[in-house]
Amino acid sequence: MSNLIVPATAPVTRRSFFSTSTKFAAGAAALGALPVERFVHGASPGDTIKVALIGMGGRGSGAANQALSTGESVKLVAVADVHKDRMESSLSQLAKQHKDKVQVKDENKFMGFDAYKKAIAQADLVILATPPGFRPMQFEEAVRQGKHIFMEKPVCVDVAGYKKVIAAAAEA
User: Which of 59, 70, 127, 132 has the fewest CB within 10 Å, making it most exposed?
Assistant: First the structure.
């Protein structure tokens, strides 16, 4: 195969190699100086992320615990559940683990099957940890209100719920 065409290139000299590598290193150093964390997380370092927890069973409390463990600027500000005793026990447990981060006032403790709407309105980020039959309508509401959402799996249990989740996700 002697008829291969090889493009003509300028020979690499020590001077051209040094010049090119110096420019590359300077560019990399300049990029390293950018405040990447701000761009990655989408918020200023001092901004508080307000979290609402919908569904306060074991998985919901666990997800809230993980969210509150991520940084100083994360606060739990609203909760919703259908069981008052579960709500109170989960809140007291979370408050023991994250003293200053659990800032749920009595007026932001919502009870009932439609309580999720009120809790979602109080937050920037919503944790949906209710039974999966309820999640599609709660996800739809959180999208409608323009919130960031963490949703436990499975996200739905039937075709109607699946269609609702897909439509809401497309809207987001």
Answer: 70
